[in-house]
């Protein structure tokens, strides 16, 4: 059954005020178009979970969509801090729940496994556990070792960007796969955005590449360049220049407002946003192809 | 001899700590430069692992973030974030972890979370990322940070990553599998832990003085009996850094 719909419809139908939202993707495949659509639809009081909030959550927090963030590294990768989130946290206006990467991802893995929690070895970095009561301890019944636990995270909505899917929602990803699969399986609803919708036969010719099967997925949205200024492996490069520019834009809330007016509220959808980026940017982000060697599954 | 900056000296000195065949969990920023420099000089068989889930990375240029697409091109394997932390790091498959941080204290504990109290932060920093796990579970830890008193307090405001905690005994008692910080490279020289896990000055870069190092350290810095002098950066190391690894000078300030 086809789950194809526009991103506007999917956000309207599946993201509600007060939801816990996890827009997945570690540096790669961050669904910026979905974040912008949430901003355009004025969703409010969201709890935004992501290991690395990245620019997408800095923008959503700046636009007033969030009441809380759950995270493990709140920086602009390789550049500095996420200024808006940092400012809101320092001012006590944004609630937050903080983990290390492994603890954050372990929460999602527990959620994806239908478990109430999962254990980890202790790291000795106990100040975080003192600051966040979600960290608990358990004694291993086999070795007697003391282990650290974190509870399952089961978001209301996952947003996953991918290179391609069929209309039913069988999703194929290559390149850095981050926490995409765990987030999809942990969440109640799953919105998938893709660069291309392909025939089911394309997916079935290479089933090892399918990270998420169709019956986990709620909506499939065709959104080329969805991840910009993040990237989609093989389709377009990361816009590192914009990541550096955001560090300047986010120095002032007036400039952020102007940026949102221009690039989010001022465009109808992501296609219009992409067109609005100039030809120099389109050219700069092009990547020459590098095909993998095909594999032989055999005919059985 | 070419002129060089203090951050170039620091990155070169850090790169030289890495051994050929090391499996290295590469951090963001300057550690990223040091690791890529080592792989292009004395450690061509070093296996660079990035927490984004990339194994055996061979980037053609320096990635800005630790999840850039150039890390994927030509890599040996890609896995999920859960696997990189569980199967590789927690399971003891990583030789070296490379960390930076806003504060490093007398016993090599690192703060990357907050300056001031956690609930009322004076400065909110990005937070742990993978640093808590890397510090605990990689076999050897190296740190890289400019030598300034505010970065080297007697005690960190917040321990994001465990060094020796209050001394080697406490780290051992916690049963952390890695052997903790082995060296802290600064723009003045190098600190290494003594038998108690206290960081002491063991090397100076050319031109730096003991007085400078002592003045820029927040505790009473001890000096090793056999204080060494770092070898100058070679022309080839500087060429690689400037022309190939960081041509736009993002990290080589």
Structure explained in plain terms:
The complex is a heterodimer of chains A (300) and B (253). Chain A has 12 helices and 14 strands. Chain A has 300 residues and is an alpha/beta fold. Chain A folds into 2 domains: 227 residues, Glutaconate Coenzyme A-transferase (3-Layer(aba) Sandwich), CATH 3.40.1080.10; 35 residues, no CATH class. In chain A, α5 crosses α7. The longest helix of chain A is centred in the middle third of the chain and has 13 residues. With 253 residues, chain B is an alpha/beta fold. Chain B has a single domain, classed as Glutaconate Coenzyme A-transferase. Chain B is 25% helix and 21% strand. In chain B, the strands form 3 sheets. Chain B has a 10-stranded mixed sheet, sandwiched between helices. In chain B, β8 and β9 form a beta hairpin. In chain B, α2 packs across α7. The chains are: A alpha/beta (300), B alpha/beta (253). At the A-B interface, α4, α5, α6 and α7 of A face α3, β9 and α4 of B.
Keywords:
heterodimer, A: 300 residues, alpha/beta, Glutaconate Coenzyme A-transferase, 2 domains, nine-stranded mixed beta sheet, 33% helix, B: 253 residues, ten-stranded mixed beta sheet, two-stranded antiparallel sheet, 7 helices, 14 strands, globular
Q: What would you say about this model in short?
A:
Chain A has 300 residues and is α/β, with parallel strands linked by helices. Chain A has helices at residues 7-14, 32-40, 54-62, 83-90, 101-113, 127-131, 180-186, 200-204, 240-249, 253-265, 270-276, 279-284, and strands at residues 20-23, 46-49, 66-71, 75-76, 80-81, 95-98, 117-120, 136-139, 146-151, 157-165, 171-172, 189-197, 210-212, 219-222.
